[in-house]
Write a structure and sequence with these properties.
CATH class: Alpha Beta
Number of strands: 13
CATH superfamily: Aldolase class I
Order of helices and strands: EEEHEEHEHEEHEHHEHEHHHEHEHHH
Largest sheet: 9 strands, parallel
Number of helices: 14
CATH topology: TIM Barrel
CATH architecture: Alpha-Beta Barrel
Bound molecules: flavin mononucleotide
Helix content: 25-40%
Structural class: alpha/beta
Length: 393
């Protein structure tokens, strides 16, 4: 039996294998952020497909942190019954499930939150929505810390097996960690220690609220690829060591923000993406997207170089590798060389929810996904998640 399909522990959590479904926004919740039947069905299929741990799409912890229409919410106790239904259905199908908690920060479009987006610093405009963010006050920061702690409690009250804090892709927690987005001076910015403080306070608040035994994971950028220097692999390694000290069970490595497509390397479906924008933004957006095509082209295991820097400094904290994981052979090499502890995939599971089971049964060694990114363009256009390789229309 390949190593990837042998049972493994992620922190205190027993998983049937080392394959993880990386958080993937579904655009399937109702307008209040509640779980719907199609959303439950998606994850029941993945559980039946024998994915070791399922992380559904990012969930917003506060209404001001909602980044997309039809995003799942975890900001209100009234959402707990729907979240419980999701967890129970996955458990009944033999799966394990972790909720990814997020605040969209400066990437929340004004048309979704009906207010100016919040950010560590109030400069510039978001490259996707063109909205100008406002710098957070001390009260805003305290509210965000409390929102994450309350959301963590809701996740575990709903029966989730673990949580993951979304500190990647340019959202609020990434913004505080990034010297590009975070231009504050004082306790919340100006040095690596101060940039890290918000994430640290959130982890401590979560541990105080739900106890230290719960499995808390983090997904973090190892490179922001912002116009000026943001998180670099070396800075990420420093943060990773601090996360290990705080008792975080596992770290998933990613990269990129709304400035580029590094998080989802592959094709850039220029016309499909531009269609989601107001007509007056399209010509400029298409020019910007064209510049992304070469730097963001598909690569195998594209976060492996960062993993090689980070793995040696994190002690017992486990490493989850995402990004361009496509073949059984690659997975086995990564595990046998101890470059990571778990392999995580997003786009391949959209096309083939039963991929893990089929690989385990020897029916295939390679994902059919061609990283065309039409799934990404679809949710950007507020269409429900599925494989759109044949086109969006
Ligand atoms: C449609 C779509 C939605 C995504 N939504 C999320 C999300 O909610 N949270 C997150 O951390 N990453 C999200 N991602 C990024 C994936 O989790 C993953 O990091 C990335 O796609 C690279 O992995 P892959 O090569 O296996 O697709 C999304 C990716 C896609 C294609």
């Amino acid at each position: 039996m390949p190593q990837v399909f042998q049972p493994a522990n992620l922190g205190a959590l027993e998983l049937k294998n080392r394959l993880i479904h990386s958080a993937t926004f579904e655009c399937m919740a109702d307008e209040n952020g509640a779980v719907t039947d199609p959303l439950v069905k998606r994850y029941v299929n993945l559980a039946k497909g024998e994915v070791g741990l399922i992380i559904p799409g990012y969930m917003y912890v506060n209404p001001r942190g909602k980044a997309s229409a039809r995003q799942t919410g975890i900001h209100d106790d009234r959402l707990i019954p729907g979240l419980t239904r999701l967890v129970d259905a996955v458990h009944a199908a033999g799966g394990r499930i972790a909720f990814q908690l997020a605040h969209g920060g400066r990437q929340c479009p004004k048309k979704v939150i009906e207010k100016a987006p919040l950010a560590p610093s109030g400069f510039g405009r978001d490259p996707a929505s063109m909205n100008k963010p406002v710098a957070m006050t001390e009260a805003d920061i305290q509210e965000v810390i409390a929102s994450f702690a309350k959301a963590a409690k809701r996740a575990f009250d709903a029966g989730a097996d673990a949580i993951q804090l979304h500190c990647a892709h340019g959202y609020l927690l990434n913004e505080f960690l990034s010297p590009f987005f975070n231009r504050r001076q004082g306790q919340w910015g100006g040095s690596p220690e101060n940039d890290f403080r918000l994430l640290m306070e959130i982890i401590l608040a979560i541990q105080k609220t739900v106890g230290k035994d719960r499995v808390v994971m983090v997904k973090m950028n190892t490179n922001d690829f912002t116009p000026k220097k943001g998180i670099s692999p070396d800075l990420a390694a420093q943060y990773a060591a601090w996360l290990a000290d705080l008792g975080v069970a596992a770290l998933e490595l990613s990269s990129g923000t709304f400035y580029t497509f590094h998080s989802v390397r592959g094709d850039v479906p220029i016309d499909d993406l531009a269609r989601a924008l107001p007509w007056w933004m399209r010509p400029m957006a298409k020019m910007i997207f064209k510049k992304q095509v070469f730097p963001c082209r598909f690569q195998k295991l594209y976060h492996l170089p960062a993993a090689e820097i980070i793995k040696p400094v994190i002690g017992n904290m486990q490493l989850i590798l995402v990004g361009g994981v496509r073949t059984l052979g690659e997975m086995e090499t990564v595990l046998s060389e101890s470059k990571a502890d778990f392999l995580s995939m997003s786009r391949p599971f959209i096309r083939e929810p039963f991929l893990a089971k089929r690989m385990k049964e020897g029916k295939t060694n390679e994902a059919a996904c061609i990283s065309c990114n039409k799934c990404f363009a679809a949710v950007f256009n507020e269409l429900p998640l599925r494989c759109y390789v044949d086109g969006l229309l």
